[in-house]
Model the fold of this input.
Amino acid sequence: MADIKYNPAEVEHKWQGIWEKEGIYHAQDFSDKKKFYLLVEFPYPSGAGLHIGHVRSWGAMDSYARKKRMEGFNVLYPMGWDAFGLPAENYAIKTGTHPSKVVPENIKVFKRQCQALGLSFDWTREIDTTDPKYYKWTQWIFLQLFKKGLAYQAEVLVNWCPKCKTNLADEEVLPNGTHERCGMPIERRLQKQWLLRITKYAERLLDDLKTVDFAPQIARQQVNWIGKSAGMKIKFGDVKVFTTRPDTLNAVTFLATSKLYEEGSKEKIGKFSGKYAINPLDGRKIPIWDTNYVTPDYGTGTIMGVPAHDERDMDFAKKYHLDIIQKDPDEKLWQVIEKNGWGEKYTNYHLRDWIFSRQHYWGEPIPIIHCPKCGPVAVPEKDLPVELPYLEKYEPSGTGESPLAKVKDWLEVPCPQCGEPGRRETDTMPNWAGSNWYFIRYADPNNNNEIASKKKMDYWLPVDLYQGGFEHTTLHLLYSRFIYKFLFDIGIVPNSEPYLKRYSHGIVLGADGRKMSKSFDNVISPDQIVGKYGADTLRIYEMFMGPFDQMVAWSEESLEGCYRFLGRVWRAFESRVGNDKPSLILLTKLHQTINKVDRDIEAFKFNTIVSSLMEFVNTWEEEGSIDKESANLFVRLLAPFTPHLAEEIWHEVLGNAESIHMSTWPEYDPKYLQVGEVVMVIQVNGKLRSQLTVNSEQSTVKEEMEKLAKNDAKVAKWLDGQKIKKVIFVSGKIINFVVQK
RNA sequence: GCCGGAGUGGCGGAAUGGUUUACGCGUACGACUCAAAAUCGUAUGGAGCUUAAAACUCCAUGGAGGUUCGACUCCUCUCUCCGGCACCA
Done:
């Protein structure tokens, strides 16, 4: 470890206390300043504490928030806890402590860690999804969905995790058929479940992607997930098929049903059903085959087999020696089919309705009362929240019934409609329920009468920038867009898209290049690093380690380089600030750095920001001293990235009074961007042959540069005896002689 | 198979069509020290030439072509890796 006089542990702790006391990061409702709502995903407070990956996202965005504040924005940068759900429950079971006890303990640890990192969250707006004052509104949203027919019950084939003893959304099952959290192979079960009709919003979820600024990978992934395919449903007598290729109706040789469908089967298997259908186009008799390769719950569950234009149909036709007709696809068939009433246009989506109930204890109770006479009835809004009863034994039963089914005195209530004895719904909501809308609540976290006041929502929403992991693209990100659109439709929220911009960060891998995991023994804890090097070092290292949106492996040596850098910054401010005017080179470098850092932070190029800051310090050391004014500029440039170090320098070395984080973002002076001297590159046939240092005015005059270049000995050597065909001149940059080869 | 993204030193990585290898790490040598650590300084793509150094020359951004005065950057083909989706008709 470097031996620097700057003591991060002491200094960081000191400033964190002062910032907290003075409340300098509080967002102001209805300020005259322009608002900026910056959101990072709130975590579920696990027992393991903060992950190094949280620091990458929250740290970089913290710098962004600080920069925006210095620019004069009224910034909302909030944090909260997504504390319901399986992980919290499983952890509680494992440690033998009740979740209602574990969660607050874990939250305390997380919060302390956030503060030790110097993250500028506005803690006055902290939320917790397990707080009844919060989940009252989660339940309220469910009731609105129920009233509009968008929450309904149905017998569905669910993904059942035998280990976690619960059903899962499709999105929670990995492509290899295992649970994304525990890795257990998923079973399929038929069960009565609550579903949300997200499919009704498929088209808008797709269309409105055009109106927001999501990183291309993210938008693309949502498009794929929604999986729109436009085609037709065509009647072959009594049998209906769905196809995206009506233009190949002329080459159909069989129909294939999904009767023998088997998940994950590789080999195509089929059996002739003994029945025939009629091709409406030409009256041909078409055999109907029962097969295993057609997906039952897609389209009509039956397809038309067109071996000539579909590889899978070709495989099947060859195996069972079915006819293969080579005909040209005919675009006109779309209209012909419609005109003759053989079929109609139909758009199919891959997106399914979202299974919204879980047979678990640790979640929001679904606010429904089942009445033998009236059926499922909404709990009256005045009775919200339906509080989760305290249960000593809350382990999942394994029977598919929620543990709440055992709580008699909670369970049995009169029907709100007819007064007859009814029974509460015992399923709870999935962990996505609380995170669907949490960003709305930050606008007005303590409101007991509304989800949030209209005025505050009008002021703060939508979120200007939402930063989080790629893994939530088709889960939380899509779900919350759906819920927000619904709330917009019923007149609650002021816009139809919740996030104007979405950007994701790459994960931090272990030093061995593998995913951080206890089993690989390669987990790095933020506490350990902050304790040894300080929060500022960890923060700039995680920015410096690589491009923000790519995964990068951890390197402690590289981190030490950042630690050394902070030591050099400290020493430079201590010993290289004077009254003399700095050299022109240094001044130019300073203003170039200000310009570059500003551009890079807007483009989320955090790694090159740190490089530029380092470059400036290198030049500073080479060039001697800077004056106090320039020192004040540079320390303000550092402030968003190394908030503690910058604050300490700002006060203790430069003698300023107010917090640096309340000061202004430095602006570069364009007059210094024009360097006095320019290195002109001289090429012959595009190859570098010499460099000339000239003053910047000279470098823009072609004739002069040409003369100077020709007189240069190194260049002359290459031009000697050659015929110059052409001279390419780029003002201030390059001169290239093209000679005969 | 389809859709994204990426291949640059020993390593992480920079580079509006204009000096490839910024910045950092690592390594080597040196300073400080009784010594070590830490810190600081110098060097550091490869090959050739040279007693040595400087200077100079050639080669190099996964591979093969192309456009251009000039290509990491644009175009065509191709290989590899990462992520997502997947008998979705």
Notes: The first strand of chain A starts at residue 35 and ends at 40. Residues 78 and 121 of chain A are 5 Å apart (CA to CA). The mean pLDDT of chain A is 91. The radius of gyration of chain A is 33 Å.
